[in-house]
Amino acid sequence: MSRTSTDARRWSDARFRRALAFTIATLGGLCLVFLGLGYFQGPKLSSAQLDTAGVRLFVNQPIAQVSPEQVTIEPTTPFTVTNGDGLVALQFKQSLLYGTDYRVRIDGVANATGGPASSIEYRFTTTSPQLYFLDRGEPEDSIVRTGLSGASREIVYSGRHIQDFAAIDRNTLAVVTLTDENTSSLDLVSLRDGVSEKLLLPDVGSIAKLDVSTPGSVLGFTLSSAKAGVGQLNSRTLYTVDLDAGRAVQPVLDLDGEPMRVLGWQFVPGSSLIAALNLDRSVLVVDPASGTATPLGQLQELHRVSPDGTIITGSDPFGPVAVTIANGEQTRLKASPLDGRTPFLGETEVLPNGDRIANAVLPNATNTQYASLLLYDDGTTSRVLYRTIDDAGSIQDFSVSPNSQYVAIETVPNSAASVSDGYFYDARSTSTTTVIVDVATGSIVRSFEGFDLAW
Hints:
Layout (H helix, E strand, L loop, with lengths): L1 H40 L3 E6 L3 E6 L11 E4 L4 E6 L2 E6 L8 E9 L8 E8 L5 E5 L5 E6 L7 E6 L2 E8 L2 E7 L5 E7 L5 E3 L6 E8 L5 E8 L11 E6 L6 E3 L10 E6 L6 E5 L3 E6 L4 E7 L2 E5 L5 E6 L2 E6 L5 E3 L11 E7 L5 E8 L6 E8 L4 E6 L6 E7 L5 E7 L20 E6 L5 E6 L1 E4 L1
Antiparallel strand pairs: 1-2, 2-5, 3-6, 4-5, 6-7, 8-9, 8-35, 9-10, 11-12, 12-13, 13-14, 15-16, 16-17, 17-18, 19-20, 20-21, 21-22, 23-24, 24-25, 25-26, 27-28, 28-29, 29-30, 31-32, 32-33, 33-34
């Protein structure tokens, strides 16, 4: 009995070992087959990660170096390429278009150790921004959320005497309200639940030139005391609030270490750095976090900072000037001809490609009438992005989208019939209309009553 049992157990163990060996051999063979198929078929795309600055493509095996010549992006977009092991990283040199289908294709992708090459492809669609604007009316003013297309209109906040606002992110607004004493209050408003948080200001007075950094973590504004005259505490004094660090309102310091009083200022896009023009007419780039201020020469007026954060525009007694932030170099801005005539330039913004968008007036052939225009100037010729019907209106302001694809234009359609809304600060015409224009084509994509568009 025991011998028979032992023999059976030995036979069973041998059968198990043979089955295990067969299974291992089979799996090993399958692995070799799959490896061989992967090798002979070439690398394949396994996943991708997309952000506003670029795209990372992950390949299923280590690959040889990819050169820019192997990469095609449609629509055409300048880029740089790096890769290592099974990763190809494309960095975009300029912002992508809104609401656009993109196709990335890389040809000749080969295994790092050889084998046949293959092509990998990735497609994605960019989003369109949510827009916010201020619509003043009775009995309350409204901050409205909308889009680039369609006619959507969602009131996200309303109240009496809204002077100004800034969209900090998708869920938070900074709202400046005029009190009955014609002073300003500043609130942070949650769009999730409507809860408001009032910021404690260092003085009772009026707020102006509200702005928020991109990304929206630092809020800035100027403050002037309600009580003017001898001993006035604030007069166009520049303050910031780092919302990531709390709610403390801090003065921005000038070169002499004192709170800075400004004639104009703006956050440098993509950072919390500040471009400012102080009362001495000095152009400064200030880091409010460290307190350092870098002088870049002098101007009479500060106009704009380019969307890529490299160029400040303004004017001196002789006309518009561009200042390079990196080195302070100043370049005279001259208008290119439009229909054989030379426009007079007003506020000008330099785009990342070096072209310009400018508020301008154009005299007629006899210099007896002037048309208010928004122009696109490529350095050789100018073309009209917008002008009012029958030249009856005026262009008050403009705002270029962060990717330079669109420009929002604040216009009064009929200057002769314009009526002020009577606000003590930041008064506007009751007929102010915002028109959004496609920069490439000059076509109007949206228009609505309201102003202070936030991209």
